[in-house]
Amino acid sequence: MTGLISIFDLARGDIEEILRSATVLKGERRRGSRRRGDLKGRILALIFEKPSTRTRVSFEVAMLELGGDVISLNWSELQLGRGERIKETAEVLSTYLDAVMIRAYAHSTIEEFARHASIPVINGLSDLEHPCQTLADLMTIKEYKKKLRGIKVAWVGDGNNVCNSLIGGCALMGMDISIACPGGYEPAEQVIRRAEAMGARIHISEDVKEAVTDADVIYTDVWVSMGEEGDRARREEALRDYQVNESVVDMAKEDVIVMHCMPVHVGEELTEGVLNSEEAVILEQAENRLHAQKALLLELLK
Hints:
43% of the residues lie in helices and 14% in strands. The chain is of the alpha/beta class.
């Protein structure tokens, strides 16, 4: 493995190994053993074109607890913000660093950086994918359902970047995914084609009940993602019938779990009641970002 730009960069065996390692690391940390020296002397840079809470903090803590060093930078702090080309930036940073994680508006920005870098590049979120989130999601589902193959995931709402990567993760791990979204809010066609070519079972409709019936997992995300604030009114109108509330949860299996990558906009895509319910595993899911990314960093840098 030389980097992680798309969830499709991974094979099933890669994911299985990352989840196995993440589970071990989580157990160690829960028992009070936070510090390891595996990545001593290694330096990771985090470059953010978009705001971040969980991605920034989880990667910083992951690298520090593995014994490495981390540098966090805003896009505007670099010469990239003044017109320097990605090519030269990637080439130079490759001589200073051991790896770089980038959160960017355009997926093509991360792809271009990776083409010119000689070190591992990690996608920390783009407009097309969020593969690190999917690793944590798969870890969470396996913890609660004890398996991945054959699990039915229901996605409710905007078929966004998180949904795109989740489709890929489901395809790789033999899971079914059913998506309920309004017309015009479907996942990326290129992602659907690639997943279906792998044999994935994907169902897309505008019917929430159809999607969540017999679901093991219900997953939702914000209606207005970063960069879409100017389109808020139209998006809220289109997605208002795609709220995950108590009645939606009742349509799924009795032991369903509810997931959300956060930040949660309570009262929009998710109700307060569901957020605080026994079905919600959202905080555990967020914690698993740390463990899954530790395992990823070890895979890339050890």
